[in-house]
Specification:
Layout (H helix, E strand, L loop, with lengths): L9 H18 L9 H14 L2 H24 L3 H8 L5 H4 L11 E3 L8 H5 L46 H10 L4 E2 L7 E4 L3 H6 L9 H15 L3 H6 L4 E5 L28 E4 L9 E3 L11 H12 L5 E7 L9 H11 L4 E5 L10 H8 L1 E6 L8 H8 L3 E4 L21 E2 L2 H6 L4 H6 L3 H18 L15 H29 L2
Helix pairs in contact: 1-3, 11-17
């Protein structure tokens, strides 16, 4: 039902004008027009003077018949609203389906930190690792050097999109993209979220293996950062709940609970309890931790390059059922990796491995990428922690990951990997250990058609798992891992504001 209005709709005026013009035409004289009473009276007097009474009665009858005809004609005109809609020009698709505004969820303000918290740490790249310089690995905005070793492995047109990227470079990659983001606010009063560009992974990581480092060394930069940011007006207004930070290492490197234990205590420091943290591995029991993909070597500049890569990996002929890139852990009792290597040997030509002992795999791409491009499935046991960069290398290559710990992915990357969809295989490690199942038997039982559908799903996810090289993203509405993270943060803060506002409204009703 249309809403009522006190004023007549514009269609009524159109209809009135239509009747007016029809009446004028029917009488061939302004005399028949009721909007001209003076002229109508003169015309009537003129007719009375010239016509005899019998003709006068006939004329009156003709006029009455014409008025009846006009009345029926007016009633047969289509309803005014339908008439207008019928002749309205079609709405262009862009207007009919209005896309959301680019920054509908809010703007992001980037805190202007002193250089000691990012640039100076990067400049000291020679001293970030006790064994070797990390300057090359952290060059090119965190992408590392070009992956020249991939020549001949991938299409030459895509070779410029591949780098030897360090798995701990996310905080550098995010900072570069955030500075150029379309929703970056220059005025903090216009921001819905506040990004703290602290390279905490570099700050803590440089002391993790140093033989002379202390807990104080691992905490010093983090404590200074919190002292600085807590003095800023945006922080004081919210106590940090609308702030977020990217940390390029796993969450456990920042969760030292006792003196002398591993890592720093950044995430346990007063002030960090409200901050959202984006990490390559999250604590499943801390909702402030958000898992983001490990950086891989693929950094496309455009959506077209992503689609070209997707076509390439989907069209690959894969000669191996499954593969494993890793090394046995001789010092571990009942080492599960050693068990998987044995499974691969027993599978014969159905499985291939790459030995990554002694850091052979590192940031070099050719050997592991070739392995995954040739495999339908790739085995992904836990690494030093529950997650592995190798899982993302595997998926970017279009292979289906096989997981043995649920904490390796399913509770880690909820913003990126869909729940309840077939993009992976889960095999309980306890059943493998007991001999109740074999990896080969499970994977052969999946069948060719189902495996094909799983691969298609993995390839569909690739854009969300990579970090674009272009500062403005991939374009054409295609979101990369950075876009997913920033959109997720903004939605999280928006939803919290709504919940807080609703709670305040409810409390106000009881006052």
């Amino acid at each position: 039902m249309l809403p009522r209005s006190e004023s007549p709709p514009p269609e009524a005026e159109l209809l009135k004008k239509h009747k007016h013009s029809s009446s004028t035409a029917a009488g061939d004289s302004p005399a028949s027009n009721p909007d001209h009473p003076g002229k109508s009276a003169a015309a009537a007097k003129h007719l009375q003077f010239h016509l005899p009474p019998c003709h006068r009665a006939g004329l009156v009858l003709v006029i009455l018949v014409l008025q009846l005809l006009l009345l029926f004609a007016a009633r047969s005109i289509p309803g005014p609203r339908l008439h207008l809609l019928r002749h309205r020009p079609p709405i262009p698709p862009s207007a009919a389906t209005s896309a959301p505004a680019p920054c509908a969820a809010g703007m992001v303000y980037v805190h202007d930190l002193p250089p000691m918290f990012h640039k100076d740490l990067l400049a000291a790249c020679d001293d970030l690792n006790p064994w070797a310089s990390r300057c090359a690995a952290l060059s090119n905005g965190g992408f590392g050097p070009p992956a020249a070793d991939l020549a001949g492995v991938i299409p030459s047109s895509l070779l410029p999109s591949w780098y030897s990227t360090d798995q701990f470079a996310a905080e550098i990659i995010f900072h570069r993209r955030m500075l150029a983001h379309r929703c970056r606010a220059r005025d903090p009063s216009a921001a819905a979220a506040f990004y703290v560009p602290f390279y905490g992974g570099l700050a803590v990581g440089r002391h993790l293996w140093s033989p002379n480092s202390t807990s104080g060394d691992r905490d010093r930069d983090c404590a200074l950062l919190l002292r600085w940011v807590r003095d800023q007006p945006p922080w004081r207004r919210s106590n940090g709940w609308d702030h977020f930070i990217v940390l390029g290492r796993i969450t456990w490197d920042f969760r030292r609970s006792r003196e002398g234990d591993w890592g720093g205590s950044f995430l346990y420091m007063p002030g960090m309890e409200n901050v959202t943290r984006l990490l390559i591995e999250r604590n499943p029991w801390d909702e402030k931790d958000v898992g983001i993909p490990y950086p891989t070597g693929f950094h496309p500049r455009t959506a077209a390059q992503v689609r070209e890569w997707q076509r390439f990996v989907l069209g690959r002929s894969r000669s191996k059922l499954f593969s494993f890139a890793g090394a046995a852990r001789a010092g571990f009792k009942d080492d599960f990796r050693g068990l998987l290597l044995g499974e691969c040997r027993r599978a014969g030509g159905q499985c291939r491995t790459v030995d990554c002992s002694g850091g052979r795999c590192g940031n070099r791409s050719a050997e592991t990428l070739s392995l995954f491009l040739d495999s339908t499935f790739c085995l992904q046991p836990r690494g030093d922690s529950f997650t592995r960069r190798s899982m993302f290398d595997c998926m970017v290559a279009g292979a289906v990951p096989v997981l043995f710990w649920r904490r390796s992915a399913y509770v880690q990357y909820r913003w990126y990997l869909p729940a309840g969809e077939e993009w992976s295989v889960f095999i309980d490690r306890r059943e493998v250990r007991s001999g109740a199942v074999s990896v080969r038997g499970v994977l052969e039982g999946i069948g060719v058609e189902r495996a094909k559908k799983m691969r298609e799903k993995v390839v569909e996810l690739i854009p969300r798992l990579v970090y674009a090289a272009a500062e403005g993203g991939l374009g054409e509405g295609m979101e990369d891992a950075f876009d997913v993270a920033v959109d997720g943060v903004l939605r999280r803060f928006r939803d919290r504001r709504r919940r807080t506002g609703e709670a305040e409204t409810v409390l106000g009703e009881f006052e």
